[in-house]
Write a structure and sequence with these properties.
flat, mainly alpha
């Protein structure tokens, strides 16, 4: 059976997961912050993240429209491939 806080209602494992996510696990374990503070901050972070994701989804173009480019057509970029270096091969010209 896991212990739950009587104030915030979070179990120990939930608070530890929230503290890890916030980067405050050590501070929580040392007693600097309480489980109620950690859970409140985690809820605020989750709410801010979900609001930002919702705004991003509303501002994006429709899912069927391709991204718009400023140019007139597709742009080809030359790519140079490197030859893989073989560790046991040595160039005979470099042996001198």
């Amino acid at each position: 059976m896991t212990k739950k806080c009587t104030i915030c209602g979070r179990s120990d494992s939930q608070v530890i997961a929230d503290a890890k996510t916030l980067g405050l696990l050590q501070e929580f374990q040392c007693g600097i912050y309480t489980c109620c503070q950690i859970s409140e901050w985690a809820d605020e972070q989750w709410l801010a993240w979900s609001d930002a994701a919702y705004e991003d989804a509303n501002q994006a173009d429709g899912p069927d429209t391709p991204p718009r480019a400023n140019g007139t057509g597709p742009v080809l970029v030359p790519v140079r491939f490197r030859k893989p270096q073989v560790p046991w091969y040595r160039n005979p010209d470099e042996l001198s």
